[in-house]
Amino acid sequence: MLLIFLVFIPLIASVIIYPLGKLLKHRVGYLASIPIIASLSGLLYIGIKNYPKLEIFEVVEWVKTPYINVSLGFLIDGISFPIALIIALVTALACIYSVSYLEHEEGHSAYFSYYLIYTTGMLGAVLSTNLIQFFFFWELMLVPSYMLIAGWGYGDRRRVAYKYFLYTQLGSILVLLSILYLGVTLNTFEIGLLNISNLLLSIPERLILTILFVVGFGVKMAIVPLHGWLPEAHAEAPTPISVILSGVMIEVGLYAIIRIVFPISLPIWIGSVSATILMSLALLSMIYGGIMALTQYDVKRLLAYSSISQMGYMFFGVAAATATGIEGSVFHIFNHGLLKGLLFMVAGVLIHQVGIRDMRKLGGLASRMPLTAGLAMIGAMGIAGLPGISGFISEYLIFLGAFSSASIYKYLLVLLATLATAISAAYMTLFIKRVFFGPLKEEFNDATDPPYSMIIPMLILGITAVVLGIYPALILEYIIPSLGFLMGG
Amino acid sequence: MVEVVLNNIFELSAYLSPIFILAAFAVTTPFINYILKQMGKEKYLGVWTSFAFLSSLIVLTISLIGIRWLGEPIILRLGFSPIESTLIIDPLGQFFAFIFLIVSLAAAIHSITYMERDLNLGSYYLLMQFMTIGLVGLTYTNDLFTFFVLWELMAISSYVLVAFRYHLDEPVEAGVKYILMSGVGSLIMLYGISYVYGFVGSLNAKAIHFGLTALPFIPLIFVLSLLLIGFGIKAAFFPFWTWLPDAHPAAPSPISALLSGIVIKAGILGIIKFIVPVVGFIRLELGLTMAVIAGLTMTVANLLALMQDDIKRLLAYSSITNIGFILIGVAAAIYGAGISGVASSLFHTFSHALGKGLAFLAVGSIIYRLETRSISKIEGLGRKMPFTAAALIIALLGLAGMPPLPGFWSKWLLIYSSIQAGLWGLAFIGVFNSVLAVIFYLWLLQRLFFAEPTEKVLDEGKEPPFPIKLALALLMVIMIIIGFYPAPIFDMVINAAEVFMMLFG
Predict the structure, then answer these.
(1) Is A487 helix (H, G, I), strand (E, B) or coil?
(2) Residues 36-75 of A with CB under 8 A from B
(3) Mean pLDDT, to the nearest integer, of B336-354?
(4) Do A62 and B415 touch (CB under 8 A)?
(5) Which of A31, A45, A365, B472 could form an SS bridge with B391, CB 3.0 to 4.6 Å?
(6) What would the mean pLDDT of B278-285 be, rounded to a whole number?
(7) Which residues from B are below 8 Å from A64, CB to CB?
(8) Which residues in chain B have Cβ-Cβ distances shorter than 8 Å to A63?
(9) What are the tens digits of pLDDT across the range A389-412?
């Protein structure tokens, strides 16, 4: 029952948090983080106890009839473990971070209740073993995240949230139709059985399903032609929510591709043509996101575009369809959660302490907020792929995987991808330089590092990123044993 | 199948206890009304009515469990009846009765405060009880004659209830339109029934099944069209929906909840009971026709709903859309999906009855406080009446198919059954309309929760009194529980569909 508990404890807690929020105001956030920390500790406990080969499966009956069988199952293996872990870690930290961030806002009860439901949605989607169950949690993420953006965001938040909802919902149609088609043809909704039962599908069927799934999940992942909602939503969401949107939510889409689409489409996926097409798509995201990030002055928009670019890297590794590439992608999901989470928190600190997001008006803050500046450096270096921070290892693995892909243009593609890394380095350097270095403007003389409740979550993320940069085996050891099964071996 | 011949009314009442309880309460209602009127506490008649529905619901639940134990339907042959009328106790009917009673209960509780300012409460509650007796009675029928009699009992009560506030213009106009359309529908149905009798020589469901399927093409199409139009006018599907957007908003809110939530479902019940089993060799043609009707109903109503400012009208259009959704299951069942098609229709009937009931009751709560139905005047409601707004939103998101609410389960089951039947186009239209519905519900949600409150809301907005809250909470809790744990409803609908299809071999 441990896994079920892990997933549902935030949801159950949301009912208790709601009335308490009226009494405790923003401090209820500390209480709200307890259930998420409980989930996190449960995950860590499972991880440490079963190091390094994880394979824990729990299932209970949910809907069982002679015609339709939907079980409520949760699976932790090498692929889902790192992603569930980063979701729990980032949501727990962002929850604590929210406390100071929300001091001056209203509606704390609702905020933290939605927040906890959102967490359950993400954890549940990642650990699901059943397609209908997966879709249940996938949709469960949507409404609370929409409410959080529309209720507590900045700027034209209602329009932005609406746009986010529309895009995602249109993507969900394709996912739902494909899932139901799979259910009707294979006569089962179990994800674990896709590996075997996919023999019933013909090649054209697989092709169509793959396209539908990639487009459907691609909207959530914000792969380039489908990215329209992301820059605005991530920039205008309240910053702790930006942390989650960019850091972990969009990656759930990629995880779904690895978990669900891969088994049914492996024979066509590993062909040269499809690998070239998908890798080029990923490359487009990388370069487009990078160049757009270079042109931004708004800190959060820069980070949002950077997320599109980074999503390109992760998709690049998956598109290559090699064990190393996927290993790198899964690890990069973890690292991106750490690093982009950290950077969005830095942006939140700027908004909270200085009140300005425009980089043209900032400058020289390193002398006034040294800790924040140091952490921002770690985040920026990690995204740029500098050795010593965990981002380097995963990007290296992704490129290594791409070298052994089936595409005949693989060398060209990897070359271009390396160039995109240079763009990442460029926009990250610009960001650091414009915000933290250069002459200190007078109005920032009183700026200081933020309160502990904001700095400690950032410290934890930063330190984890450095530790994993030096000793990546901590996470990689979990991923490797599960890759063989995924590649049909 | 167990057949029982009943010779006197006492045996009958033992088998049909839910209905007899309702009838007993209805008969005593005038006396209770008289006593309460003498004491000057007429509004407590609502408590009495709620009690009637509650006790019937409890008895029904007990017998529902009993039937699962028995495992097979019971046919009651009324020994004293001259026209060989039979009644049936099967899971399908019991499931419908269950839905009807839950929504009626919530509406009766809601009426306690909502109707406190009105006069003639005695007739209001009596009509409400008669309507429910008609509806619950329909679920037991096994022949077209009994069906028609109870159908008229339900329909005539509903005509009067729509125009209950006869001193206002709108309800009277809507009531007249409703009685005209619905009356014509009943006549067409009666005409159809007479043809059935002429062709088959009996009105019994089983006999109809054998008799009609043996008919040649033209007479069969003719008879089925008549019946379908009769049921269709009540169920308000394309192109017979025009009366609904007028009639449902004009009625008092608890009555709107009953009309939209359950009365239109009587048409669906009729279609499932008497049309789905007799399709025979025109299976494909009729399936496609129903698919086209379903698609048009959904799409047209959805597009019209987008333009409404009157919130009750918007909900009324959404009811038509959802009838279209329920018809997806019917079309799939006729076309070839069989059991899963019927089951998905039943499930969506449940989701929509509770969801739309809740939505109309929540709007009732808004009208009780603010006395307006215009969406632009109730913007920002979430600030002052969070509970009411939350109920409305849960209802709407539930209908739109968002988890963790029943609509999620019924919608995918509907799409699943249509894919299973091979109706791909219908599946696409269904999903497309589902998204369209989400889009406009969300737009409403946004205005209710995140817009700046209007002056009216700031001045007069206040949570409703306890009975209204109780009614909303009742439906909300059921919806959320079923949303997380849909297994009981899945069990019931699959079992109901299975037993029902088995009856006709």
Answers:
(1) coil
(2) 61-68
(3) 92
(4) no
(5) B472
(6) 83
(7) 487
(8) 409, 486-487, 490
(9) 998 999 999 999 999 888 888 899
Q: How confident is the model at residue A162 (pLDDT cuts 50, 70, 90)?
A: very high
**Number of structural domains found in chain B:** 1
Residues of chain A positioned with their CB less than 8 A from the CB of B428: 177
Phi, psi of A98 (to 5 degrees): -60, -30
pLDDT of residue A444: 84
Position A63 in a domain = no
Percent of chain A surpassing pLDDT 90: 63
Residue A399, in any domain of the structure: yes
The answer to ipTM > 0.90 is: yes
Which pLDDT does position A251 carry in this prediction?
93
- Nearest residue in A to B485, CA atom: A62
Which residue does chain B place closest to A137, by CA atoms?
B403
Residue B484 with chain A: CB contacts under 8 Å: none
Cβ atoms of B3 and B75 closer than 8 Å? yes
- Contact A146/B420, CB-based, under 8 Å? no
Q: Per residue, what are the HEC states of B252-285?
A: CHHHHHHHHHHHHHHHHHHHHHHHHHHCHHHHHH
Q: Say yes or no: B486 contacts chain A, CB-CB below 8 A.
A: yes
In a domain, B185, yes or no: no
Q: Are B331 and B294 in contact (CB under 8 A)?
A: yes
Joined together, the tokens standing for residue A204 give 């054209």
CB-based contact, A142 to chain B, within 8 Å: yes
Query: pTM for this structure?
Result: 0.94
Q: What is the DSSP string of B388-452?
A: HHHHHHHHHHHHHT-TTSHHHHHHHHHHHHHHHHT-HHHHHHHHHHHHHHHHHHHHHHHHHHTSP
A181 touching B (Cβ < 8 Å): yes
DSSP assignment of A152-184 = H--SSHHHHHHHHHHHHHHHHHHHHHHHHHHHH
Question: Does residue B413 form part of some domain?
Answer: yes
A135 touches chain B (CB under 8 A): yes
Q: CB distance from B487 to chain A under 8 Å?
A: yes
- B469-496 per-position pLDDT tens digit: 999 999 999 999 999 999 999 988 998 9
CB proximity A177 to B under 8 Å: yes
- Is residue A473 a part of any domain in this protein? yes
Which of A140, A166, A183 is closest, CB to CB, to B404? A140
Determine, yes or no, domain membership for B358. Answer: yes
Going by pLDDT thresholds of 50, 70 and 90, the confidence category of residue A41 is: very high
Question: Structural domain tally of chain A?
Answer: 1
Q: What is the pLDDT of residue A412?
A: 93
Contact B414, B430 (CB under 8 A): yes
Query: Domain residues for B365?
Result: 280-505
Which residues, at least 6 apart from B58, have a Cβ–Cβ distance to it below 8 Å?
none
Domain assignment of residue A387, given as a range:
270-489
CB contact under 8 A, A151 and B435: no
With bands split at pLDDT 50, 70 and 90, how would you rate the model's confidence at A134? very high
- For residue B67, the model assigns a pLDDT of 64
| A158 contacts on B by Cβ (under 8 Å) | 446, 450-451
Within a domain: A390? yes
In this prediction, what percent of chain B has a pLDDT beyond 70?
Answer: 97
B480 in any annotated domain: yes
